[in-house]
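Researcher: We're teaching a course module on how sequence relates to structure. For the next exercise, students receive a sequence and then see the predicted structure as tokens, so they can try to spot secondary structure elements on their own. Here is the exercise chain.
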Amino acid sequence: MNNTIVLEKKEDLIVRFVNLTTSYMGRPKFGDYSSHWENLKSRNSILFSICLMEYVENETTSIRRKLNHLMKTLSEDSEIDAQIGYECMNYLLNLKE
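Model: And here is the predicted structure for the students to work with:
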């Protein structure tokens, strides 16, 4: 994994996260998912859930391997949490295209 954290506006990351989460989980009854980006455990839980949804739906071995790696990394407490969240979000957004 690349150790360079991509510099992107925080607001842009939040918007992309909200759009991704909404596309998989629908709109929440109250508020939106933006506050979950700031909470590491919440963000990783949501991204893990979305990875699991894709894993179940996708039968391609290479995609399943990548999703498995992302889920494993998201479930570990580590210093690269912000970077893995960013990597995971980008991978899932690319799968949706």
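Model: If you want an answer key for the exercise: Residues 40-57 form the longest helix (18 residues). DSSP finds five helices and no strands in the chain.
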